[in-house]
Amino acid sequence: MNTHADGARTRVQDTPSGRLAGRRAGGVDRFLNIPYAEPPIGAGRFRSPRPERPWAGVREAGLAGAAPPQTVAGIVNWIYPAPERTDEDCLGINVWTPEGAGANGGGRRRPVLLWLYGGAFVTGSNGLPLGDGARLAAEGDIVVVAPNYRLGMLGFAAHPALRDPLTGAQANWGLQDQARALEWVHANIEAFGGDPDRITVMGQSAGAVSACLLAQHPDTAPRFARLVLASVPHIAPPDVATAEDLAVYVEDLAAHFGTTVPGLRHLSARDLTQGEAAFFAGYEVRTRTGHGRRWPALDGSVVAAWPGARALADKPMLIGNTRTESSFTLDLYDPLQDGQLTPPLPDGKAALHAAVDRLLRQRFAGGAPRISPAASASASPSAAPSCAIPRCSCSTSRFPTSTPSCAARCGSRSKTCSAISASL
Question: Are 75 and 337 in contact (CB under 8 A)?
């Protein structure tokens, strides 16, 4: 077994698709960037994922693969750092398993956790530091897997002209990647010491929405046993788009680039991803429901119903949110730059009324709903009830620490954090 400069040793594993050379360190075997589908490049762009092709020899699996093409901006840039490398050839899966748990060494089969990252369907990857599954695999004695899936326009463009002749799909390519990754895990995880009958799908934010959709679909629900939803957002009308809405948006985007909808396949991934983000920032809504692009799309096949609109499969489910979830978008402070990352809250009734009115106009085209003076008054900061949970300052140069446990909890990430008084 070879030893690398970082002290890790090579770990060779047999799989149904071929042999892999992973890394062993800290009691965990790591197999990174294992292909679970053919690269979605060239004619494969805007196409349902195809199963990976077997390889000859030993494939290197010790290094992280490229992240899906994406843009990282705004207040999420300290959670989702800009990837070192992005590429459309990104459909790989990472596996962390306790040392020696693979089929090569025999032994018992362990529970499996399949992690789906969040990021509003436009940001994220399985290579983020916060998604490293090594510690969880070691301390939980489980097998952790994390696939990449396509994001943004490359993952969710919807239009009849993009119809896949093999599957008939014309939308939700990123969700189809997730379904294919789950299929791969169910078929291959036993080789890594995992139990295909004890797979738990866990997702955060957009990943939690994805997990719900997997649990609602008759093709994917039978492939896993349990469900964990972290910070799952509510996605339902009217704040969603239909496939028809997205088709209008894709047509407008193609015109912006001076090409046809099929011609979007010929743009570079960089130009398409960055150009679409800039285009959307100034896009004037022109769709039936009044929304621009909102991933994913209700297409009747990949997504037949929104989460909550259809009963989930009969599975044990755990749902949770962080205590300071709202402060992430309302009161986020960066101690490294000593600056606020979010705009100031409305100061007074008139400013609040204007902010809500602006939000309604963004969400609804033409005839946006109006808020009544009574509603505006009841929603004003002065009329809002006080929070029953004590708040304390985090440790920064501007905001002295009121309790050590508070500073430890928030990690100096946010200016304020909620704490239960009994634990302070």
Answer: no
User: Helices marked H in 146-268 — which ranges?
Assistant: 152-156, 173-188, 206-216, 243-256
Tokens 């705009």 sit at which residue?
343
Q: Tell me how long the chain is.
A: 424
Which residues is 24 bridged to in the sheet? 9, 29
313-340 confidence digits (pLDDT tens): 788 999 988 777 766 666 666 666 777 7
For residue 9, what pLDDT band results from cuts at 50, 70 and 90? confident
Which two tokens mark 366?
């033409």
- Tell me whether strands 339-340 and 333-334 are parallel, antiparallel or unpaired: antiparallel
Closest listed residue to residue 325, CA positions, set 233, 406, 208, 407: 233
- Minimal CA–CA distance to 201: which of 210, 211, 193? 211
What sign does the CA torsion over 323, 329, 335, 339 have? negative
Mean pLDDT (whole number) for 253-266: 95
Residue type, 34: I
Where is 71: in which H helix or E strand? none
SS3 track for 314-337: CCCEEEECCCCCCHHHHCCEECCC
Contact residues for 96 (Cβ-Cβ < 8 A; gap 6+)? 28, 29, 30, 132, 133, 134, 136, 137, 143, 144, 145
**SS3 (DSSP) at 95:** strand
Q: 233: exposed, middle or buried (C-beta count within 10 Å: 0-12, 13-18, 19+)?
A: middle
pTM higher than 0.85: no
Show the CA angle centred on residue 103, arms to residues 98 and 105, nearest 5°.
Answer: 75
Tokens of 399: 């905001």
Give the C-alpha separation, 174 to 210, whole Å: 10
**Amino acid of residue 27:** G
